[in-house]
Specification:
The protein is α/β, with parallel strands linked by helices and 554 residues long. The relative contact order is 0.10. The model has no long low-confidence stretch (mean pLDDT 89).
Length: 554
């Protein structure tokens, strides 16, 4: 029997959402709680039911019955029994393997729900060397192996419900101010408090670790400080670059009662760890040669931290994953606007940092005025005639670069800048030659990876105080940079089909302000840049953003 609903659930576990149906938004709000968006063309969006999406739902308290009920309620046609089976199987795996404390402080207990799971774990070589069978449903493991066991188990489809109480670190009292040092009234927003509530719970077993997903511009730094205030412990914040380190430090000093003597940085420029320390992923993963040790990873393992905050957790590099496995006894939170990782290691974030504890739709915060209203435009232009044959003969990578660096984009940039004479504008791209050409053509300041940190901060400061209105930036500005007045972003090239990069770049213009924001992506028609652009837009489509297409007449 067919019903008048917007969803088709297919036997391959994909879900087709008719975006023109009057109840499509209501349906989408349900789907994003336990599905992942994989494709979003004009008329029909495709979602999928994945193990990670179902485990995140289960870990956040969404009942299996709720998922099945929502699927049945929204589906236009009867759902295949195989889909119901998959959902039941995957969602029910959460909680079948639990980590708990034992009577002996040297060991933890790994409890399993069935003889079959016990047999499977016993037969896995990578696990059998870490686990000792205690009785019919319990293994023992040494405390140091906690992270590695969790990682191995999620790889074979058994996410671990870690019920071990985390140990508190050295006490560092701090309080958030009612008024910032700069003299502005300051209050933690309701959703920021809810984020901290969801992560910390009652501070009992199973609480105090996980990932918080909030839009760029919504104040993830404040969420981190709210958690710091509640735990009042020695804290390490790991973020993406030196500018972001200094931004965190400024925010902490501006909005808490901590003194400058208590807040330090650990970067390539300065190594001064304090009770609250902010460092970069780059310094942690630095080593003098490819085969040598990582000299600064001791900052993580031997810093006696009570809390670690992984800013932009979707950027967590492989060596930090390895050390994160050793830090399972520490309170920890990952902050991000998107859990999408282009390397597919979302399961490691889930396992080692923690499951998604809180998520709020971007459009919900936009409607409440906490982030700016944004309009997305994709502007398509032709390739110049003289490049058509070189493009046809190029490799896939050469074609992408040729399309990305299309010289006609310069005219588009000029027109868009003229279209927004009073806005603060970021011109963002991937290729340095292209960005330098734009900066030279319009006599604009430029920030790239080679720009010294002092110069970067000088230019960011000039943009914030209004003395510079237009800034050309490479991908170094994708992450953790607070430019609150930016209201227009012009993207001239990107990192292939990176969905997370698209979200981060839109995030540069989402700080709330008294005007709408505009995000322009300039793309070469009839090229593989169009294909990559479509993939980049998937994540934002899930958040309710749509791209208006403009065809540029050369």
């Amino acid at each position: 029997m067919m019903q008048d609903t917007p969803l088709i659930v297919q036997s391959d576990k994909t879900l087709l959402l008719d975006v023109h149906h009057p109840r499509s938004e209501e349906c989408r709000a349900d789907l994003v709680r336990f599905c992942e968006l994989i494709k979003s063309p004009e008329h029909m969006h495709t979602y999928t039911l994945s193990a990670i999406s179902l485990w995140n739902a289960a870990a956040s308290g969404i009942k299996l019955e709720t998922i099945l009920d929502r699927l049945t309620y929204w589906s236009k046609f009867p759902i295949a029994e195989s889909v119901y089976f998959y959902v039941k199987d995957m969602a029910s795996r959460w909680g079948k393997v639990r980590l708990t404390e034992s009577d002996d402080p040297r060991y933890y207990r790994l409890e399993v729900d069935s003889e079959r799971i016990k047999s499977e774990l016993s037969q896995r070589r990578a696990l059998s060397k870490l686990l000792v069978l205690k009785d019919s449903r319990t293994f023992l493991l040494e405390t140091y192996a906690r992270g590695e066991v969790k990682l191995q188990l999620i790889k074979i489809g058994y996410p671990v419900d870690d019920r071990i109480r985390l140990s508190a670190g050295p006490h560092v009292p701090l309080a958030l101010r009612k008024q910032t040092r700069s003299g502005k009234d300051f209050v933690v927003r309701p959703y920021q408090k809810m984020s901290a509530d969801a992560l910390l719970g009652d501070l009992g077993p199973g609480c105090g670790f996980g990932t918080i997903v909030l839009p760029c511009g919504s104040g993830k730094t404040v969420v981190g400080m709210e958690i710091m205030q509640r735990l009042a412990t020695r804290t390490l914040v790991v973020t993406t670059n030196v500018a972001a380190v200094h931004q965190w430090m400024q925010e902490i000093l501006d909005k808490t009662d901590l003194t400058e003597e208590q807040v330090g940085e650990y970067t390539g420029e300065r190594k001064d760890p304090r009770e609250i320390t902010v460092c970069t992923y780059q310094v942690l993963t630095y080593r003098p040669d490819k085969e040598g040790p990582f000299p600064h990873l001791d900052l993580l393992t031997k810093g006696n931290w009570g809390l670690i905050i992984y800013d932009e957790v979707h950027m967590l590099p492989a060596p930090v994953f390895k050390i994160t496995a050793e830090l399972q006894a520490v309170y920890r939170v990952g902050l991000t606007a998107t859990l999408v990782r282009e390397d597919g290691r979302e399961d490691e974030v889930f396992s080692l940092v923690g499951p998604k504890r809180f998520d709020v739709p971007w459009n919900e915060l936009q409607q409440q005025g906490f982030i700016a209203e944004a309009y997305c435009h994709e502007i398509r232009i032709d390739l110049p005639k003289e490049l058509e044959i070189p493009y046809a003969l190029g490799t896939k990578r050469e074609k992408y670069r040729m399309a990305s660096e299309n010289p006609l984009k310069l005219e588009v940039v000029k027109e868009l800048v003229n279209r927004h004479p009073d806005d603060f504008i970021l011109i963002i791209g991937q290729y340095l030659d292209q960005l330098k050409h734009i900066a030279d053509a319009f006599k604009l300041p430029i920030i790239t990876g080679s720009t010294p940190n002092a110069k970067r901060e000088e230019l960011y400061r000039a943009f914030r105080d209004g003395s510079t209105r237009i800034l050309v930036v490479s991908k170094v500005a994708n992450f953790a940079i607070d430019l609150p007045d930016a209201s227009v972003a012009i993207q001239v090239s990107g990192t292939f089909g990176s969905r997370s990069e698209e979200a981060q770049r839109l995030g540069r213009i989402l700080r709330p302000k008294n005007r709408s924001s505009f995000f322009y992506s300039v793309v070469t028609r009839y090229s593989n840049e169009e294909e990559f652009a479509a993939n980049r837009q998937k994540f934002l489509a899930e958040q309710g953003y749509s791209y208006e297409i403009e065809v540029w007449n050369n």
